[in-house]
Amino acid sequence: MVLFRRHAVILISLLAFRADSVRADEPRFIDHSLIVAPDYPCTWPHPAFPVFLIHHVRTIGPESVYNIDTLQIDGNTGTQLDVPPHSVVRPELKRPKSGPFGNSFTDVIEPWQFCGEACVVDIRDLLDQAPKGMSPLVKRAHVMRFEKKHRAVGPGDVVLFRSDYSDKYYRPLPEGHRFIADILNRKAPGYPDPDPDCMEYLASRKVMILGTDSASMGPLPTLAEPTHYAGLKYGMVWTESGTAYGKLPPTGAFYCTLGPRHKKGQYGEIRAFSIVDKELSPRLIRASRAKRAIELSPVLEQGMPISNPGALPGRHRQPYLKVDFQYAETLDLYNHLHLMDGQSGTSLVPPAYALPKAGQDVTYSPTARGWLQAYESKYGPRGTSDMTTERVPLSWTCGNARVIDVRSLGGTLKPDQLPDSPEITAEHIKAAERQHGSLAPGDIVIFRTGHIDEHYRAAPNELGMWSDPLAGKSEGWPAPGPDAIVYLKSKGIRCVATDAPDLGGVNQRRAAMTYWALGSREMVGVEFLHNVGAIPTEGNPYFLFAALKIRDCHGGPGRAIVLY
Question: Same domain for 241 and 350?
Fold first, then answer.
């Protein structure tokens, strides 16, 4: 009996050690994003604002090898980013609130401004300390209190207001009504927020990025817009609905906020996180302070070839659509949501994209069954996974960038071989290692194909992106086969990225095997990058990507940058 118990303890301990376990010597990643799900208070509770929706439009089975989602989401969903045009009017309109930052939408903010050193201003003494329907006010004195205890804030700092509000009140509905709705209904005290004078003080310190764990940066009921304008007129950006600020030291952590690069977004849904590490954090903070940052995500705009049109009629993914609602006369702008495929633009490929859940009864089409039989005879069981987007550790999609240039593979296929993509093999990777050094565990391997840089064009010049390669009218983009994935796993690689539309390529059989190899080895992909050629070969470039924290999502839009 004792022996049985001992073995049981050992077994439980082994089961508890998941792939996302962190060794003591690894950087600590802290997620500051709220879960986005229909049963949470993740959208603003106003009748003009559409609710968040996720549609599982295809599941693994006879019709699809993959789990495919469609998202309905607006920029005020979950953890979010505000940028100047949210309150600052475009200068060309010549209105009272027109200013030089009125055109600083989410797609044009420089990537260095999304990052910095976290300075956590503790305002927990303000939590719930106001009448119902009103917000306790964060004054400049609270920032000065922080400065007296720690140090002065300044350029390159991210001032985070920590009240623990979201930690306490962001709950599933109906309990979650306390997060915002109960305040608007004057049933509960408001969340703490800075007053306009506090914003003026931060601007005098040249702070350009803030964050709050309150639902908004605007105090209720009357100071929301004055506070927003007071900071945004200086070009500030900030995180709203952050969380877990209590896990950070007062100073020294690297903070980052990334979200889909929507065209002309006056706000946007994001993923916010921090890195705590005695070597990595200072390195990234230095890079962001020096503005050494590279944008890797193309702009998302309706009419651009963002979504897979399918190789056959009826097999297309959800087109990327911007839906306007609630016109803001003072800004001459509409609010808007996006209806899009779960893998729109720069996005994540989690294991659950191609793997069914444990115990799920899967019946593939006869063709796909043949692919699976061939795959398993060579590479072993396909396996199962419940690792959807929100379960993928942030540390998996951040790491030292290793660019492998595979542009030489373009033009290597003959016309009678199409539709197909040149295969990136293990030998191509080994050749790059011989030239540039061995891959190290945790590196982010980025395949440079040049495809999106060349073919991401608006109609009528969009066919080279997806349609012509899928139809066999032109060669597909280079894509890794399963052998390459198996080799990368042997090198300790967890994340594989590409500046092509996807990692599978246009050969559907090989694509399925590539995604099965990724998923079964608990690896992830990041697809749809551009500008990879701008990543320097020197300077120790570091890749940062984070997908939106959407529950049960099998894709996950996001944004990728490099600091060096």
Answer: no
Residue 170 lies in a domain: yes
| Model confidence band, residue 23 (pLDDT cutoffs 50, 70, 90) | low
Beta strand 542-547 pairing with 558-563: antiparallel
The pLDDT tens digits for 152-209 are 999 999 999 999 999 999 999 999 999 999 999 999 999 999 999 999 999 999 999 9
Domain count, the chain: 2
Residues 285 and 361 in one domain: no
Helix (H, G, I), strand (E, B) or coil at 253: coil
SS (H, E, C) 338-354: EEEECCCCCEEECHHHC
Choose the final residue of a domain: 291, 318, 334.
291
Radius of gyration for the alpha carbons in the chain, expressed in angstroms and rounded: 24
Q: Which amino acid is at 296?
A: L
Give 227: exposed, middle or buried? Use CB within 10 Å, 0-12, 13-18, 19+. buried
Q: What are the contacts of 86-92 at 24+ separation with CB within 8 A?
A: 86/228, 86/232, 86/266, 86/267, 87/225, 87/228, 87/229, 87/232, 87/233, 87/331, 88/229, 88/232, 88/233, 89/330, 89/331, 89/332, 90/331, 90/332
* Residue 404 in tokens: 């492998």
Lookup result for tokens 């969380």 = 243
* CA nearest neighbour of 450 among 406, 496, 480, 400: 406
**Do 362 and 493 fall within a single domain?**
yes
Residue 110: domain span: 77-291
HEC string for 190-211: CCCEECHHHHHHHHHCCCCEEE
Tokens of 342: 């779960």
Spell out a b/e string for 144-183, using b for 16 or more CB atoms within 10 Å of the CB, else e: eebeeeeeebbebbbbbbbbbbbbebbeeeeebbbbbbbb
pLDDT tens figures, 462-490: 999 999 999 999 999 999 999 999 999 99
Best CA proximity match to 52, nearest among 28, 31, 69: 69
- Per the DSSP assignment, residues forming a β-bridge with 275 are 29, 254
Q: What is the DSSP secondary-structure string of 452-519?
A: HHHH---TTS-TTTTHHHHHTSSPPPPEE-HHHHHHHHHTT--EEEESSS-SS-S-HHHHHHHHHHHH
Q: Alpha-carbon distance 117 to 285, whole Å?
A: 6
User: Is 233 among the domain residues?
Assistant: yes
Write the CATH number for 455: 3.50.30.50
Based on the fold, state whether residues 357 and 252 are members of the same structural domain: no
- Side chain identity at residue 557, one-letter code: P
Inside any domain, residue 406: yes
- Global confidence as pTM: 0.95
